[in-house]
Structure formats: structure tokens, C-alpha cells
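Closing statement on the magnesium ion sub-project.
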Amino acid sequence: MTQDTINEVLKFRDDRDWKQFHNPKDLAISISLEAAELLEVFQWSAEDVVCTDKIDKIREELADVVNYCILMADACGLDLDEIVREKVKLNNEKYPVEKAFGSKEKYTELKDK
Ligand SMILES: [Mg+2]
């Protein structure tokens, strides 16, 4: 995520004076609602692992989720690059390659290979 993209999302909000409505609770609710809209794209789909015919709607809903994540990070004073990198580092510790490679098990269930 570039700072230009983040600034564009924040400008959209600020041009409309919407920051006053963007408290962490309502932004968290909005992230969840948009994630549900993303999930809705696959509802009743017989081919729910394929996205080729749904890509336009996926793009739209995924962008909604990310936009709200940007707004949430801003409301909480968090740096998205920093928190995502920290989480990847933690996930690397939870899911070491030598145990997790090719496995879909939760980290608590991973075994030595
Ligand atoms: Mg949406």
C-alpha cells in the first residue's frame, strides 16, 4: 500500500467531513460488513473456489474492506505497513516453514516433519 493511495482514501473522507463519524467501533463494524459483502459474492455458488466470473464484484468488495482498514488504522493511529509486517513476523514464528510447509493445520496442531 502506497502512501499516495492511503492519502487518497483519507482525502475522500476529509472532503466530505466524515472523520467525525469514523470511530473505531463503527469502522470495525464496517470492515466486518464489507467482508460479509465479499463473502456474499460466493453465496449459493456451485463453483465457490473460482473467481473468474466474479472478479468485478470481488474487486469492489475487497477494495471496500481495504478502504475501511485504512480508515481504521488512521483512526487508531496505526501504521498499516508496520502492523502487517509485525503480524507476518509473528505468523512466521507460529508457522515455521519446516513445520507448516504444505499443511493447512492450525499452528497449535503442527507437528515436526
Ligand atoms: Mg461493499
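The chain is about 65% helix and 0% strand. With this model delivered, the sub-project is considered complete and its resources will be redirected to Aim 3.
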